[in-house]
UniProtKB/TrEMBL annotation:
Domain N-acetyltransferase: 19-166
Protein name: Acetyltransferase
UniProt KW Cytoplasm keyword: no
CDD domains reported in the protein's UniProt record: NAT_SF (cd04301)
Coiled-coil region(s): none
Keyword set, alphabetical order: Acyltransferase, Transferase
Molecular function terms from GO: acyltransferase activity, transferring groups other than amino-acyl groups
Species for this entry: Streptomyces regalis
Superkingdom: Bacteria
């Protein structure tokens, strides 16, 4: 539809839009994991527990930031960064609602996260993702991220990426 535009702006991790997007993101990645490995969807009680436990409070300045993308004014996706040290930022919570994928929101969010990381002084962005999140891996590769050896031992981390920001 013509006239539909994307915007990306910082937003508190606990705003209503950010909270709804976090729940949508977590539901999708959790369901994909459980359907692949256990043939079931995420238990609603587990979803409630995990989204309440992982609030995103670390995505708050001066060491982090949550970005919310809107498409035609409506909340559509997120990306977060957190500084791990003076030079390294981690990209996290990259998500675009499925119905809006392929419309440019993912690259826009990642580039905005890179700009935010640079503004915090980072010279390198790292991230991890799962094997089954093939769309995410393709996006990161397309945007210049290179697969690296593991930089963490996250439970669900199966692929690790890095990109120089300067």
């Amino acid at each position: 539809m013509s006239g539909m535009t994307w915007t990306v702006a910082p937003e508190p991790h606990d705003s209503p839009a950010a909270t709804a997007l976090w729940r949508a993101y977590y539901t999708e990645v959790s369901d994909r994991y459980y359907l692949l490995h256990e043939g079931r969807r995420t238990d609603p009680a587990e979803l409630d527990r995990e989204t309440a436990h992982q609030t995103g409070a670390e995505l708050t300045p001066p060491k982090g930031q949550l970005l919310v993308a809107r498409y035609a004014g409506e909340p559509a996706g997120t990306a977060g960064i957190r500084l791990l040290d003076a030079d390294t930022a981690e990209l996290t919570r990259v998500f675009v609602h499925e119905t809006l994928r392929g419309k440019g929101g993912g690259p826009l969010l990642v580039r905005a996260a890179e700009d935010t990381a640079r503004s915090f002084g980072a010279t390198r962005m790292i991230l991890d993702t799962r094997h089954d999140l093939v769309e995410a891996r393709a996006l990161y590769t397309r945007l210049g991220y290179k697969e690296t050896p593991p930089h963490n031992d996250g439970t669900y981390a199966e692929h690790w990426f890095s990109k120089a920001l300067r």
